[in-house]
Amino acid sequence: LSEALIASVKTAPEEFSVVYQPQYHLATGEVAVVEALLRWNHPEFGPVSPGDFVAIAEQRGHIHELTEHLVRCVLADLSDKTARLPEGLGLAINISARQITDSRLEALLTPLFERIRGVGWVPEIEITETHLMNLSRQCLNRLQEFGEQGVVVAIDDFGTGYSSLAYLHALPVQVLKIDRQFIWRLGGKSRDSRIVSAILGIAEALDLEVVAEGIETEEQHNKLRELNCHRGQGFLMARPAPWQELIPLFFDRN
Ligand code: G
Ligand code: G
Ligand code: NA
Ligand code: MN
Fold first, then answer.
1. Which H or E element spans position 23?
2. What is the pLDDT of residue 189?
3. What pLDDT is stored for residue 98 in this prediction?
4. What is the pLDDT of residues 17-51, one digit of tens each?
5. CA 44, CA 12: separation in Å to the nearest integer?
6. Ligand 1 pocket member 50 (CB < 6 A)
7. CATH number of 101's domain
8. Cβ(70) to ligand 1 under 6 A?
9. Structural domain containing residue 219
């Protein structure tokens, strides 16, 4: 798989595409943010999960090229049908923590951020917290720069990594995205809401916004609304879908 990925990254960019999954304001049911997610469809292996290929690309030093594909796809989608977009949504992309200090990142993302602002939207980056462990000064500075450019920084899969309260405070982060394992515990047998409540408490103290990911049932959705969680994302509301399928969702209440 590793060799196939590297070959495809270099010679078959058409095998990569982007789907989008909305995050909703839980209080109103309106779309708040759309998250861009990479897909790889290999002619022989079929669809490969980014959970698998992103890790390989990181290990083999090709994550920058994958992000280039992503940026190209998102730019193409944004230049299409812009007239029908609502104002003020966020557009989130996933960035590997290792990429944060890559000197090529700024030149790659600046035109994307400009295009996002150009349609009246707000750029957002999601960074998985496991990798934030070894926070270099350089990494912190880069996040700070993004923040100063009006880019919203979110910590993805929050609760599974090593974020300490000390650096949540120090980081220019505005959003915590609670890992889906904690959301799943809100439903079914366990109905355990203690971790989600605790994260919401931390977020309130630090003035952060919280997104619950992986919402699959009405029970989880209702519980999160009861807890006053800000945003939610999951198969219950919408699955990741190509850009054209997304547009009608903007004008729908869920
Ligand atoms: O889309 P899916 O749930 O299969 O994604 C699995 C994981 O892959 C998620 O954690 C997601 O953040 C990550 N991922 C998806 N697209 C990208 C991308 O463009 N860049 C990076 N670094 N990670 C991505
Ligand atoms: O780690 P990250 O938040 O980037 O992961 C996004 C991934 O989560 C996407 O690949 C998407 O397919 C997946 N996802 C989104 N909503 C749900 C859900 O309700 N259930 C499950 N199992 N996966 C989801
Ligand atoms: Na994400
Ligand atoms: Mn996540």
1. strand 16-25
2. 79
3. 83
4. 999 999 999 999 999 999 999 999 999 999 999 99
5. 13
6. yes
7. 3.20.20.450
8. yes
9. 2-250
Using the atom order of ligand 2, give the atom closest to the CA of residue 126.
4
Cα 239-129-232 angle, rounded to 5 deg: 30
Tell me which DSSP letter residue 241 carries: B
Q: Please state the rounded mean pLDDT for residues 2-9.
A: 94
Residue 185 and residue 144 in contact, taking contact as beta carbons nearer than 8 Å = no
Q: Does ligand 2 lie within 6 Å of residue 216's CB atom?
A: yes
The span from the first CA to the last CA of the chain, in angstroms, equals: 39
- State the distance from the centre of ligand 2 to the C-alpha of 152, rounded, in angstroms: 20
225 backbone dihedrals φ, ψ, rounded to 5° = -70, -40
Count how many domains the chain has.
Answer: 1
Given the DSSP bridges, would you call strands 90-94 and 152-158 parallel, antiparallel or unpaired? unpaired
Expressed in angstroms and rounded, the spacing between residue 197 Cα and the centre of ligand 3 is 21
**Which token pair is 140?**
């912190």
Express each pLDDT in 118-167 by its tens digit.
999 999 999 987 665 566 788 888 899 999 999 999 999 998 877 777 77
